[in-house]
Amino acid sequence: MISVNNAPRQLLRRLHAVMASASGAEQRLAEIVRLVANNMIAEVCSVYFMRGGEILELFATEGLKKEAVHNTRLRIGEGLVGHVAATGLPLNLSNAQKHPKYVYRVETGEEIYHSFLGVPVLRSDKVVGVLVVQNKTQRQYLQEEKESLQTVAMVLAELVASGDLFNPQEQQGATLERAATARFEGVVFAEGMAEGVVVFHEPKIEVVKHLTDNIPLEKKRLDEALGALQKQIDDMMSAEDISHQGDHKEILDVYMLFARDKGWRSKIEDIIDTGLTAEAAVEKVQLNNRARMQKMTDPYLRERLSDLDDLANRLNRHLMGLSVTAASENLPDKAILVAQNMGPADLLDYDREKLCGVILRDGSQTAHVSIVARALGIPMVGQMEEALLHVAEGERVIINGIQGVVYFSPQPEILQSYRENIESRKVLLAEYEALRNQPATTLDGVEIELLINAGLSIDMEGLKRTGASGVGLFRTEFQFMVSASLPRVGPQTKFYRDILNSAEGKPVVFRTLDIGGDKPVSFLKRDHEANPALGWRAIRIAFDRPALLRYQVRALLEAAADKELNIMFPMISDVSEFKMAKEILNKEISRHKLHHANNAANLPKKIQVGTMLEVPALIWQLDNLLPLVDFISIGSNDLMQFFFAYDRENSKLSGRYDAISPAALSMLKFIIDKCNEYNVPITLCGEIGGKPITALAMIAIGFRRLSIAPSSVGPVKMMIRSMDLSTIEAYLGGLLSRSDHSLRGMLIDFAKDHDIKI
Ligand code: PEP
Ligand code: MG
């Protein structure tokens, strides 16, 4: 039996000598397996590498018949070795022959060996080989022995990476937990199709040097990297970092705990003591952590361990001097980002010429990053299984952002069907295009006004492309989110003027700054908030920092000289807040008049002031509010999250509550009826107007104006032109008193029965 305490150290020292020797790669490999066998008192030690696709080839062995080298080949999943490669996990068996995956290969002569310990050789999470020890006796290998073998496997990965063993192009590697083509299903956040290559938003790293003979130096490096990591997290926590705000906060709290955790540091230091470099030691701790993660059933603990995994990646990036996220400037053409999640500002940082799709592990339909993706026309899908994060950088990928499916390393027939899909989508888009100049009128002659949501200058092109009648919601904060400093009045004025000019006389409703929540800006320091969506955001910030709103309103007044200015405020919770906001506007109008006293033509020729209705409390003040406003705009994303008390950013809740439900429809209908009573125009903004089926429900309860993403105009108009309003009104009206969780199914059936194109 091996002497547990000294063996790993000895083994590493010898390994170091072998790796540093001048002999050829094959010779070094033979030397390594001999070393391992001796050190672990194993009769057999063999190493298999992936070569020429999904085949594992025996490259070196101590104990099996020598003629098996380069002759024994196994497919992924075949035999115990193939099983280790397929799962990416160690396999420790005292009686290997009893395992269902056991296969006997006559050329190896291995039938006399009973116990088996196999560990994967991993490079950037891809299995590139398998290292095995075997013994004649039936024995369970110790945890320490498994760890030693994993360390050797890490060093072997280095040998593979060097390209000395064989041409790296021959070695493809299996991505964990999957066969050749991986298919993932998820939820569509932004429609579209794309074909491209995987780029990790937070790139994976590959440790290139594992062994060291300068232990104090490695500890010093670790110390410095941990310091840099702590500082990085502190900076994020102090809300200066634009890309890690809002819902990342809770995660950052946990990060902070881990980063300061003495236990984590001493585990890494202990491994450095055995002769590994700091980054290899971090990788090793990570490996153990992942093995624990696989066994964990408690989802909360699993997530925490996955935070630790992420943190280890960050630490290694510091150790290796790499940047934290994929550098926008080095983005390859046709890049498809893969990420756990990301914020809207992260997305805006990337070069739009090169970025053609995004796949998120988490995410949700109404999160702002999804809204930005829709605005940019970048297909985005999310809510995928965890294995998504184990795909390989540079892998070919297809996003079918209509059905919510992605394929990694697609086979030719999948590529073919994808291209056919693209063609049929082109036909559909041409049908929408043909409707561009047609009115959105129902079969029984009721005209519905379709407007677009916008936030970036490029969205304005959508106004022309879709033939929409104006911009029902211009999210001004997007421009602030991409700016490192507070945009001054001059540049703001120019921006709004350009927007109005590109609208060519069609109305544009500007919403004043809706920052905070998941929309961080770099120039505003915020405290940690437990519930940012309910926190210091939108008009609440404006009241506490009035200069922000004053300058913005000033710029809007200047920009709309001689034109119509439509302005509304976000997150108004009661009438007094609306009055306060309007007071700021009035003060700026007076100031403007004073400054342009000699030239009345410089004022907007008409100013319409309205409010978003996103906070339920305001519904019970409509009798007081409606006489004061020129229009109302329902922010359905926020209104629904507050109405149902669900976090719109939380992927576990998305789809759980439905706007097509008696409760939500009754509430919305109450607002519409009130607005009609006071003759105040009402628009529905937010994502629920953008899907034909929800738009159908909204029109049926009385909305006549929808502000939706440009890409939704075609499908929604097509639906409107195929519906008979009076029939659907009568049908849905009869369902509002029911107690169903959702009426969606019934409405879909109704639409199908009545040939409504949903
Ligand atoms: C809404 O809440 O529906 C809305 C339009 O505003 P945002 O999505 O920008 O919060
Ligand atoms: Mg909102």
Detailed description of the structure:
It is a single chain. This protein is of the alpha/beta class and 758 residues long. Helix content is 42%, strand content 17%. It has 25 helices and 23 strands. The strands form three sheets. It has an eight-stranded mixed sheet with strand order 8-15-14-10-11-12-13-9. An eight-stranded parallel sheet has the order 22-21-20-19-18-17-16-23. Helix 5 (215-237) packs antiparallel against helix 6. The termini are far apart. Residues 1-5, 172-179 and 239-248 have low confidence and may be disordered. The chain binds phosphoenolpyruvate and magnesium ion. Phosphoenolpyruvate (PEP) binds next to strand 17 and helix 20. Residues 371, 473, 475, 514, 614, 635-638, 685-686 line the site of phosphoenolpyruvate.
Compute the number of strand runs.
23
Major sheet, described briefly?
8 strands, mixed
Question: How big a fraction of the residues is strand?
Answer: 15-25%
Please give the CATH class of the largest domain: Alpha Beta
Number of helices: 25
What would the CATH topology of the largest domain be? TIM Barrel
Contiguous runs where pLDDT drops below 50 for at least 5 residues: 1-5, 172-179, 239-248
CATH architecture of the largest domain: Alpha-Beta Barrel
CATH superfamily label of the largest domain: Phosphoenolpyruvate-binding domains
User: What structural class do you assign from the helix and strand content?
Assistant: alpha/beta
The kinds of small molecule bound in this structure are: phosphoenolpyruvate, magnesium ion
What would the average pLDDT be, to the nearest integer? Answer: 86
Distance between the termini: 70 Å
Cα-based radius of gyration, to the nearest Å: 31 Å
**Given the C-alpha coordinates, what overall shape results?**
elongated
Whole-number count of domains: 3
